[in-house]
Amino acid sequence: MRRSPIETLVGALVVAVAALFFVFAYNTAQVKTVEGYAVSAKFDRIDGIQRGSDVRMSGIKIGTVLDHRIDPETYLAVVTMSIDSDIKLPLDSSVAITSDGLLGDKYLSLTPGGDDETIPDEGEIEITQGAIDLTSLLGQLIFSQTGNEGGDATR
């Protein structure tokens, strides 16, 4: 089977466009690990948070989750994150686990406090809010709506 130079040129063009697309997607996705100082926080549940998850403040990525483990004394989940060195968190800052929309990825959302002192390297954020279990929440909503309003179920 004979190939024409035009087919070869079109194929090379498609490969080049695909490569440019992947480079653009990688640069805009902010999948890089943020280098900075380490901060930890304890949660009752961390559903959906993994190594590499984003740490955001005002919707902007300022950190990355480095590790998570169980504290054997309190049985709480301990999340260690790296925060950008340019961002100095006040001592009374808080962190919550939130998601990008209903089915989106989970991330840690930081809210800065008003304290003059800042959290040091290897410090801990004391005020935390764990992940909300949407399945249980939906189940409660459904079963509360289908409850019997005082009527007879046999009618």
Major sheet details: 8 strands, mixed
Query: What is the percentage of strand-forming residues?
Result: 25-35%
Shape: extended
Query: Taking strands numbered 1, 2, ... along the chain, how are they ordered across the largest sheet?
Result: 7-1-4-3-2-6-5-8
Runs in which pLDDT lies below 50 for 5 or more consecutive residues are none
Order of helices and strands: HEEEEEEEEH
Radius of gyration: 24 Å
Beginning-to-end CA distance, first to last residue: 76 Å
Provide a count of the helices.
2
Number of domains: 2
Q: In terms of structural class, how would the helical and strand content be classed?
A: alpha/beta
The total beta strand count reads 8
Mean pLDDT: 86
As a percent range, the share of helical residues equals 10-25%
